[in-house]
Design brief:
Blueprint (H helix, E strand, L loop, with lengths): L1 E4 L5 E3 H19 L4 H29 L1 H6 L14 H19 L3 H7 L1 H18 L13 E4 L5 E4 L2 H17 L8 H17 L15 H24 L1
């Protein structure tokens, strides 16, 4: 969905606009929580590595998943401003970007991940809102008071279960609870937040009505959420064991 056009006629897509605003908010939030200017700079640098990795990973998995289309339309691969990202690929790519930054700068991966928790929350919320305006990840039809107007991929608007807004509220709650953890283990907050986000996506997949292939009664994003949630639980167990 095009939000508006620049004077030269260049389209500005609503999804990209919302995601850009959420990234800016997340960067400012991360920098604000730093104890000094140098610490803020290091955190912002780490954020940029995470965002770069997330951009590449999310787009790569999306293109691979819809390869039949992109094989016939190779020019569309670079049109990232119009949307089209796989959250699982973005999460994996962001992690690899952070891992590489931590190795190059000789910093604690866990401590960096905890510091970047606000960025993860802000980007997730921006993605949910972008899905709402673009007609993606919409809920099943609802005739009760809980239904809100939502667009589908064909542009039709109807009263539906507010999956995207439930996602926003759950994301706020999950990352607020993760940030309040008093664990001294570096990375504990971040992994706990990502685990909650994966379980959120798994649960909300049962309320979605946008078409998707199903295997063993589960959508692809539900399987991805289960796999990544398992990785998070394994990471928490290993972190706990290493300090025990």
């Amino acid at each position: 969905m095009i939000a508006f056009r620049l004077p030269a006629g260049v389209p500005v897509y609503a999804f990209a606009l919302l995601l850009g605003f959420s990234v800016t908010l997340g960067l400012a939030w991360v920098a604000w929580q730093a104890s000094d200017e140098q610490g803020a700079k290091r955190r912002v640098d780490a954020c940029l590595w995470v965002l770069g990795g997330g951009l590449l990973g999310g787009r790569a998995v999306e293109v691979a998943y819809h390869w039949a289309y992109y094989q016939s339309h190779p020019g569309d691969i670079q049109l990232v401003s119009s949307g089209g990202f796989a959250w699982s690929g973005a999460l994996a790519g962001g992690f690899l970007g952070l891992l590489l930054y931590a190795r190059l700068e000789r910093k604690s991966l866990g401590a960096l991940a905890d510091a970047l928790l606000p960025l993860i929350a802000a980007v997730t919320i921006g993605a949910w809102l972008g899905c709402w305006v673009d007609g993606y990840a919409y809920g099943q039809p609802a005739s009760g008071w809980w239904g809100i107007p939502a667009r589908d991929e064909w542009g039709g608007v109807g009263s539906r279960i507010p999956v995207q807004f439930i996602g926003v509220l759950l994301t706020l709650g999950i990352y607020w609870l993760a940030d309040r953890q008093r664990s001294s283990i570096p990375g504990w907050k971040a992994v706990l937040g990502v685990l909650g986000g994966c379980l959120e996506l798994f649960a909300l997949s049962f309320l979605r009505a946008d078409p998707a292939p199903v295997w063993k009664s589960l959508r692809p994003e539900a399987w991805a959420a289960l796999v990544l949630a398992g990785c998070c639980m394994l990471a928490l167990w290993m972190m706990q064991k290493s300090t025990g």
